[in-house]
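Input (structure):
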């Protein structure tokens, strides 16, 4: 399957480029550099610069919101901070890590961070035919190439040996991405990020970011009444101290047989249960998110899941949430 998909990708590269050119549109510039059609240079951002995007994921559908430059250590010339104006989206990213363009981004190359290491999703200056590699979305050695530069827009693709594909474009007129599509497999698109045509300076409002640390990620299958108990320690972030909150993601499918059901309980070290759920037969709950207070120390999870095809997916992360007010 991967070989057939790779063949189809090569055959359709020209079509991809043409479609991206039509979708990019015409927008005004507020932070472009002195790039030319032969070479696109890294833009310079200022605090308050913002871009409106529609993010599409299989878990949450379409969400339109802004990315905002919230901080810049201009004196050291190392990195920006990008926040998002939808608080729920900040929480979703903390749990699923699907938006790599939240958090730190380097000045010199707009590199994003994965596992604490800057990853060159772009490689400025962008020149037609340029090739490089990076790690992203939990995969290593994405092989990227600039396919074409036209009207200040660089069209790029990246792939890796396991069959994933990223199609994306950088628009020097807005100083950022105009489109990004990540396909984990031929049949599964994990993220679409589409510029809405709006960007400006001097954002007014709030922006959010959660610095998260994974605590639990488990899938429980139907087990005819067996109780799953697990314990984990909440010792805070390894470098930044105690968490503000714990964030919980639940994806639930309970089969419709009469005896099928599911339960979820989390308890802190004092015995308090800040989150308790119960689901009857035929229940489907996709991508629910809860935020509970964080208590340092031991936590316990208890899950039951009955029914041959029932499933409960649980993710728990600790987070330090930052809110910027403009």
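Output (sequence):
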């Amino acid at each position: 399957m991967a070989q057939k998909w790779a063949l189809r990708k090569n055959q359709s590269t020209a079509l991809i480029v043409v479609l991206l050119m039509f979708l990019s549109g015409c927008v005004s510039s507020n932070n472009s550099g002195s790039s030319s059609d032969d070479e696109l240079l890294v833009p310079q951002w200022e605090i308050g610069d913002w871009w409106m995007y529609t993010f599409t994921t299989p878990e949450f559908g379409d969400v339109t919101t802004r990315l905002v430059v919230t901080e810049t250590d201009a004196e050291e010339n190392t990195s920006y901070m990008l926040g998002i104006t939808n608080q729920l989206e900040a929480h979703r990213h903390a749990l699923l890590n699907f938006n790599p363009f939240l958090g730190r981004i380097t000045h010199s190359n707009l590199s994003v961070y994965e596992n604490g290491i800057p990853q060159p999703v772009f490689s400025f200056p962008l020149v037609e035919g340029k090739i490089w590699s990076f790690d992203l979305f939990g995969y290593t050695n994405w092989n990227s190439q600039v396919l074409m530069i036209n009207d200040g827009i660089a069209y790029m693709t990246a792939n890796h040996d396991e069959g994933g594909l990223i199609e994306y474009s950088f628009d020097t007129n807005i100083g950022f991405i105009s489109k990004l599509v990540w396909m984990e497999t031929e049949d599964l698109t994990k993220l679409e990020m589409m510029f809405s045509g709006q960007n400006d300076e001097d954002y007014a409002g709030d922006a959010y970011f959660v610095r998260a640390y994974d605590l639990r990620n488990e899938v429980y299958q139907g087990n005819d009444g067996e109780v799953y108990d697990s314990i984990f320690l909440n010792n805070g972030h390894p470098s930044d101290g105690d968490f503000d909150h714990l964030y919980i993601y639940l994806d639930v499918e309970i089969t419709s047989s009469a005896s099928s059901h599911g339960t979820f309980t989390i308890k802190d070290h004092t015995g308090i249960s800040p989150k308790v759920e119960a689901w009857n037969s035929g229940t489907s709950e996709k991508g629910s998110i809860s935020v509970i207070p964080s208590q340092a120390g031991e936590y316990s999870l208890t899950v039951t899941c009955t029914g041959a095809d029932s499933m409960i997916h649980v993710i728990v992360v600790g987070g330090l949430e930052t809110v910027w007010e403009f």
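Notes: Residues 13-24 form the longest helix (12 residues). Residues 213-321 form a domain with the Jelly Rolls fold (CATH 2.60.120.380).
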